[in-house]
Amino acid sequence: MKAVKKMRAESLRHQGMSIKEIARKIDVSQSTVSRWCSDITLSEEQQSKLDENRRKAGMKALAPWIRKNRELKRSDIKIQNRLGRRDVGRATQRDLFMLGLGLYWGEGYKRGSQEWGLTNSDPDIIATAIEWLDKCYDVPIQNIIARLTINLRYKSETERITARWVRETGIPYSQFGKPTFIRGYGSSKLEARTYRGTLRIKARRGTSLRRRILASIAAVGTQITPNSRKTAS
Predict the structure, then answer these.
(1) Which tops the pLDDT comparison, 132 or 58?
(2) Whether pLDDT at 9 is above 80
(3) Which of 27, 94, 113, 180 is deepest in the core (most CB within 10 A)?
(4) What is the rounded distance in angstroms from the CA atom of residue 28 to the CA atom of residue 165?
């Protein structure tokens, strides 16, 4: 009986069946089948098929875990979205002012004697900065000048990219300067469809405004940074 099962195991292994499948089919342990078939070499095609079957089996085993985590993720996103909106409440002028300071602190021109300026690839950030200037410093959008920086790879897309920025920020075409082109990487089809370059905006006659904003940022910094708290204590 044992000899018959061994011959059957060897035959199934030569057909490219996995050790686990053979053990289940002839009702013996996997270790026994592995020992019986240890000197059998599978063809490249058979080994490739076994590897693919193992991959599929692994994905099938993971499927419940993946579904559970996907559901937990969706649930958490809903909860955190609700909490996040509640945390904000109704935004005030003061909120916009502080948001703008934080934005300029992170993204604005701070060194040298440059005018007020900010560069970013996110149109929402640019639009927020424009709103901040208008509402908090009485700098209308008409006083904003813009210049695009575009990868040379997408030079032919300049018109489309500019039109998108005009639409998303509200800055008129007439206030866009000649774009700057740079060499860089990026060739995927997805990037080609979504590429927008970066936009630099500056406020006309904005040197004094920049000094004022940097002074506000410094004042905030002395109140909330760890070093200032140590000094104050």
Answers:
(1) 132
(2) no
(3) 180
(4) 69
Q: Residues 116, 109: contact at Cβ < 8 Å?
A: yes
Place of tokens 């140590």: 230
Percent of the chain with pLDDT over 70: 92
Residue 152 lies in a domain: yes
Report yes or no: 161 and 197 within 8 Å, Cβ to Cβ: yes
Helix (H, G, I), strand (E, B) or coil at 202: strand
Q: Is residue 99 part of a domain?
A: yes
CA 183 to chain CA mean position, Å: 23
How distant is the alpha carbon of residue 227 from its chain centre? 32
Amino acid at 126: I
The count of residues in the chain is: 233
In a domain, residue 139? The reply is yes
Which structural domain, as residue segments, surrounds residue 155? 93-232
Q: Looking at the 3D structure of the chain, how many domains does it have? A: 2
**Of residues 201 and 40, more confidently modeled:** 201
Closest CA to 39 of 3, 13, 5, 59: 13
Question: Of 28-37, 83-92, 97-106, 222-231, which gets the smallest average pLDDT?
Answer: 222-231
